[in-house]
């Protein structure tokens, strides 16, 4: 494969006009990512008609929209770490270890680490897309409903790493998340399930409503409880940056997460939320020897941040090479190509080298710009935590309400958010972790749809789940990730017993 398109693209991306457009897109994307429930899809949908009617050439329009996209992936971490309010779906797992770091006074360090790991993930993924975009497009074609289902089985197998010291509560959380996915219209039969004749529930519970309720509203209630009891103490903000040793320490977790995130991003319909969930649980299984994940471990922060940025980049692969959007955001960008009468597909790299090359080259530049923009501002962002509680608590609540209402224009959605928040508060008081609920919800929805579609295609034959090489590989990986740790623990226990002196 010739890489002439990349050299032509560098010339396009380095034009002063396009550099300015990329910088504006990165800045707007970061702001959009900070705001709960807005997300890159809405941001790009708002900017697309402006870019088109302004007479921007297609290369410049795509550079702007792409910059907003991965800028939002960077920005989503800010509210997630500081306030436990994920800015978008990909930032949910960031809160699991990022927020505990902020609570113990390391907000600036957490923001810096997330920015650096996002840079790792974004840059490695862009390099992978440059060299592997066309060869990897076959992977997206090979994945049918059966393969997607087995992929979700593998993802659930990785959840074993989250069981920890309270396996019953973790499993109950996963089951609760799975149960919530069954609410709404059954896409296969067309029947409404568990909607209680409420039109607002016909489409099910939206992911953002669930996440903001479980994380943001429950956190506000816990803060109010502490305020009433007089136990809510102001947070210390040290403002320290990570050391070079810590930056090196997150390199391999970021690389592993980037590989997972990029591959999952290439698969249409999965997205950053699945990528960050799978990468976090996988990294926890590999690295959490001392039970520090979920308590502010920098590896647990770095992995999902690298993964969601890699997934955002990977989603461009099927869009450019096959004309199939890899995510909701790239679906909007596909519409932008259609506006300019450009047909994506295998010949796009040959027929439109300046367009594709300019887009990919702008991603290299954009990731560098985002790192330069974000690192100096982490101390400023961290100082948000020094606001008095009489401002912070209403501010978080208002931000949550504004985000949900802006996204869905429904008072009922806001009420559902508060209801979920109250349930989340009670569950947290009982010692439940919110992450398994979210993971069950994210993975369960994809799993159910593809399970039923696969059975419909095969006439009800379960053999379809074992009929392809990809399915068999994924089954083997799922079984191995469950059984190998058990075998290793037993072998270690046997060695310990053998090493004990006789009584």
Q: What would you note in describing this structure?
A:
By secondary structure, the protein is an all-alpha fold. The chain has one domain. Helices cover 73% and strands 1% of the residues. Helix 7 runs parallel beside helix 22. The chain starts with a helix and ends with a helix.
Summary of the model, kept short:
The protein has helices at 4-13, 16-34, 39-53, 58-83, 94-103, 107-142, 145-158, 167-181, 207-229, 244-249, 251-266, 272-287, 298-314, 316-322, 328-339, 348-351, 353-374, 378-382, 389-408, 411-429, 435-458, 469-499; strands spanning 184-185, 192-193.
Any chance you could write out the topology, listing elements then pairs?
Layout: H1 4-13, H2 16-34, H3 39-53, H4 58-83, H5 94-103, H6 107-142, H7 145-158, H8 167-181, E1 184-185, E2 192-193, H9 207-229, H10 244-249, H11 251-266, H12 272-287, H13 298-314, H14 316-322, H15 328-339, H16 348-351, H17 353-374, H18 378-382, H19 389-408, H20 411-429, H21 435-458, H22 469-499
Antiparallel strand pairs: 1-2
Helix pairs in contact: 1-17, 2-4, 2-17, 3-4, 3-15, 4-5, 4-6, 4-13, 4-15, 4-17, 5-6, 5-13, 6-11, 6-13, 6-14, 6-17, 7-21, 7-22, 8-21, 9-19, 9-20, 11-12, 11-13, 12-13, 19-20
